[in-house]
Specification:
This protein is α+β, with helices and mostly antiparallel strands. It is built from 25 helices and 22 strands. A seven-stranded mixed sheet has the order 10-22-21-20-11-18-19, sandwiched between helices. Its main location: membrane.
């Protein structure tokens, strides 16, 4: 309705101005003046209403000058000037409405996700009832894939729950009988029974919804850029107009001052620049819901980020398959993936995905059964294979060491057993995004002074991610309510941006001055609660948006400042009687055109903090990035071979020979081609021939250790390496594993993350 009214207002004022001009040219000046007067009169009530609304909010904006100018032109019968002012006023408001129209924070997805029904036991079985009818003590059935309707305790079976919507934890969490679970989480396993401990009004999820509504209602609106200028421009205008009238005794001079002071550069330039900036961000895959959000983003100094799905990929990935006894890591991964192929569990999907990516052949599995909270079993090549939790009562020194390693790596363990004996363990972890570190560096360059991680995940996991990314402060194990408190604490210190992707982040996004949602894979609730939505699943789009926001705000301030400066000069000229109101109106029109043209520069591409990659270099980066994925199994083989040296035999010799062959036939050619093709291109791109020296030094170390491994193979006997070689062989293999792992990570973060950045 408001948009329709503003469109009509703009159309009416333009029509009055054009009609008056046509009638004057046709020799009907009285009728033309009547049209101009009508256009002026039409503009007075809305302008006066905007001033009254501002006063109610204890603000006095630049609209007050426009009202005085409109009334003044009517009083001294300068109708043409009044009509021009009316058009400029309507145009400014229409532009601002266009830039702000999408700024409403609609949290309907959060509300719509709330449980509507529950399966309550009664009359011999479960029956679907409205969730509002559930009472404390009721016994409920929670089917697979459905939301837990109310808070309760597990009555029977094991509950495997996806709690990412509330806590941000990407891995499913198991709850045994008698343990408490919260509403709003998803049953990721088999059906289980739940004893309600409260009604829907008392449930955790309802509290999240209520908190989001209260937070949204309590968030203060951002003051318009134009109104901030008015703090000094309005008094200056009134002073000059008053002096002109008092010293000359001619009220027309005061009206002329008001006409040229009409703040069209403020009313037009800032909205035009911000609307252009919003168009620019859209080309980067960033939707900004309002001009106020873009303007505030350009002033941000503190960045608060969720962990899961924002700084990390948001899904578990296999980081290692550790073999025990006579098995290899490929055996362990292959057996696990064979029985997990039929499972829909998120960990099973990660294991199958890793096996296929590493080219592991999957044997056929029969009699596959899955037990919620325990794992999957099947028969592979006549042997019983179980994947999941370790068998009860089974504990060995090797398993204790594997658990300790998992704890150090903040990884989840999936045990693989063959005929009830442990064959190995698979470690899974939510990996840090490849573009996260570079994005944070770009954001600091763009003006972010403080980076905070705010997550519901465990403290040790959060600290490990923060250490990699150089984050200033970590707030871990925070509930949605505590997240809001954390954001508000940061917002009191500086303008704060909050980035998240889960439903649990929606209240915190609404609490920040600017909420940013990872919209590509994040929840609809977080996307609708946020002011800015990243439509691509890339964190570096936030840095692109920050670059655009800062440049846009700089252009808006520059355009408004230059326009005001020109207006001040014109005001002095008008006060001296050298500029009548009509001429002043057209001069003001010229100033408007100048500042708007300058404001539209925000439409142009922005260099910002992004490093532009030419097409040829981009193709090289993508190629070598893909080769890294193919070389990952070599890293696993190096560690497996080093571990196998504890039992020197012909099998360990075969592993050594295979590792050396892969190093010389696949890894070294890859590294050597990087030195000859990729690094020279990167040196030209970075403008520094020394930029890749440290990477080339890593290549030299990889070659040295590979040659050392070859020398050991030549000294080894047919039945394996001699005992005197073992210590140095282990050091050589572990050294290769460490250097290659670090080198790959450095290249992926520093170089390969440059690809896919700039949209076509």
């Amino acid at each position: 309705m408001k948009h329709f009214w503003l469109t009509a207002f703009l159309g009416g004022t333009i029509a009055a101005l054009v009609a008056g001009a046509v009638l004057h040219l046709a020799g009907h000046p009285e009728a033309g003046d009547a049209c101009w007067m009508a256009g002026t009169v039409v503009a007075v009530p809305p302008a006066a209403w905007w001033v009254i609304s501002a006063l109610r909010a204890r603000q006095l904006g630049v609209d007050a000058i426009a009202v005085l100018a409109l009334v003044g032109t009517l009083a001294v019968q300068q109708y043409a000037a009044g009509a021009v002012i009316a058009v400029m006023l309507a145009t400014g408001r229409a532009l601002e409405d266009y830039a702000m129209r999408r700024a409403g924070r609609d949290l309907t997805a959060l509300y719509e996700r709330a449980p509507r029904s529950a399966h309550r036991y009664g009359d011999g079985g479960p029956h679907v009832v409205p969730v509002g009818e559930v009472r404390r003590g009721d016994l409920l059935l929670v089917p697979p894939g459905e939301l837990v309707p109310v808070d309760g305790v597990v009555e029977r079976a094991t509950a495997v729950l996806d709690e990412s919507a509330l806590t941000g934890e990407s891995l499913p969490v198991e709850y045994g009988e008698g343990q408490s679970v919260r509403s709003g989480v998803v049953n990721a396993g088999h059906a289980f029974d739940l004893r309600a401990t409260g009604t829907v009004e008392e449930s955790t999820y309802t509290g999240v919804v209520r908190l989001a509504r209260e937070t949204e209602a309590g968030t203060a609106p951002v003051v318009r850029l134009a109104d901030r200028f008015a703090a000094w421009f309005l008094p200056a205008t009134l002073l000059i107009a008053g002096l002109a009238w008092a010293l000359s005794g001619e009220p027309v001079r005061a009206v002329a001052v008001l006409v040229v002071a009409t703040p069209c550069p403020l009313l037009l330039a800032a909205p035009a620049a911000i609307a252009s900036g919003m168009s620019r961000t859209a080309r980067h895959g960033v939707v900004v819901k309002g001009g106020a959000a873009l303007e505030t983003l350009g002033r941000a100094r503190t960045l608060v980020l969720d962990k899961t799905g924002t700084l990390t990929e948001g899904r578990p990935e296999v980081v290692d398959a550790v073999a025990a006894g006579e098995y290899t890591s490929a055996d362990v991964l292959g057996l696990a993936a064979a029985v997990d192929q039929m499972s829909s569990h998120v960990l099973a999907a990660a294991i199958v995905r890793a096996a296929r990516r590493r080219g592991v052949e999957l044997p056929a599995a029969r009699e596959v059964r899955e037990r919620a909270g325990v794992g999957t079993t099947g028969v592979v090549d006549g042997r019983k294979v179980s994947v999941g939790k370790a068998p009860p009562g089974l504990s060995t020194p090797w398993m204790a060491a594997a658990r300790a390693r998992a704890a150090l790596d903040s990884a989840m363990t999936v045990w693989v057993c063959v005929d009830d004996d442990v064959a190995g363990v698979i470690l899974l972890r939510d990996a840090v995004r490849a573009d996260a570190a570079r994005t944070l560096r770009r954001l600091r360059t763009a003006g972010i002074e403080r980076v905070v991680m705010l997550t519901g995940d465990r403290a040790e996991v959060a600290e490990s991610v923060a250490g990699i990314l150089g984050i200033d402060r970590v707030l871990a194990e925070r509930s949605p309510a505590e997240k809001v408190v954390g954001v508000r604490e940061e917002a009191e210190r500086a303008v704060t941006v909050m980035v998240g992707d889960g439903i649990n982040d929606a209240p915190a996004l609404a609490a920040a001055q600017v909420g940013v949602a990872m919209g590509a894979r994040g929840s609809a609730a977080s996307a609708q609660a946020a002011d800015v939505v990243l439509t691509a699943d890339r964190l570096d789009r936030l840095a692109d948006a920050m670059d655009v926001a800062r440049r846009t705000r700089r252009i808006a301030v520059q355009s408004a400042g230059v326009g005001i400066g020109m207006s001040l000069v014109a005001m002095v000229v008008a006060a001296l009687g050298w500029l009548p109101p009509v001429a002043g109106a057209f001069l003001q029109e010229g100033i408007d055109v100048a500042v708007i043209v300058n404001a539209l520069r925000a439409l142009r591409p922005v260099q910002g903090t992004r490093l532009r990659v030419d097409e040829a270099t981009g193709e090289l980066l993508q190629r070598f990035d893909q080769e890294h994925a193919g070389l990952r199994p070599v890293l696993d083989l190096l560690r497996e071979t080093a571990d196998a040296l504890d039992r020197p035999d012909p099998d360990s010799l075969a592993l050594l020979q295979r590792a050396y062959r892969l190093l010389t036939e696949e890894v070294l050619p890859h590294e050597q081609e990087e030195d000859t093709r990729l690094y020279p291109a990167l040196s030209r791109l970075l403008g520094d021939p020394e930029a890749t020296v440290t990477m080339s030094r890593a290549h030299a170390e990889i070659i040295r250790l590979t040659n050392r491994l070859g020398a050991h193979l030549r000294l080894a006997h047919d039945h394996g390496p001699i005992p005197e070689q073992l210590d140095d062989l282990r050091a050589c293999l572990y050294g290769l594993h460490a250097v290659l792992t670090l080198h790959f990570a450095q290249e992926e973060e520093a170089y390969f993350s440059l690809t896919g950045g700039e949209p076509a």
